[in-house]
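Troubleshooting log. The previous structure file for this entry was overwritten by mistake, so regenerating from the original sequence record. Sequence copied from the archived sheet and checked twice against the printout by T.R.
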Amino acid sequence: MKRNIKLVLEYDGTQFLGWQVQASGRTIQNTLEEVISRIVNHPIRLICAGRTDTGVHALGQVANFYTDSSIPLPNLIRAVNSKVIPDIAILSAEEMPESFNARWNATSRWYRYRILNSSVPHVFEARSSYYLPGSLDFDSMQKAGQSILGTHDFTVFNASPELTHNPVRTVTYFNLAREGELIIMDIKANGFFHHMVRSIVGTLIDIGRGKIEYTEMKVIIESRERKRAGYTVPPQGLFLIKVEY
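Regenerated output below.
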């Protein structure tokens, strides 16, 4: 009888070309599939909740796969982690009903973006935050972010609208906080488009720099014109925090 195994994992995306298998180059998916396939002694295919881009990290990515192997889950976790640490770690494994699908059964995804807003860079933040010196109007950024909440057509923040059938998403949580030299944006929604979070952050930065008035955020969203939004910030500050079901 086939078992459907759900994995929760974290990874440092710095050295990977994103989640999805590529024609060439190292990805999270092909690294894990090769290791797990050897352990269970047959080829497996991972289905993930959110296909992160090159350089993007995860603290709570979810994936599932089917196997005929009877290997106990604690043994599976230990065996996989021994091969993929320090870049990837399996945090937990759980047997699920055959119908469970990590992507299609997800009800929300929570992302975080970290900006290092300091006069000098810091070595240990280089892989996990976007270094951005100079003053930012934090209050204006915070106010602008409230316009993102709710159900909207988010075409303006979609890097690949031609691949999107439904441009409407519902953002259920948004928070912008300053912790010392870090500015941290948390956002939760029922789904995200290609580069959506990074485009939102770039727009908030342009507002913080005074290039766009914070009152314009609602107009920008309603315009559905990509050129009205800010730039797409680099990937290293982005984390997939949690997937909910």
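Residues 28-40 form the longest helix (13 residues). Archived copy saved in two places this time.
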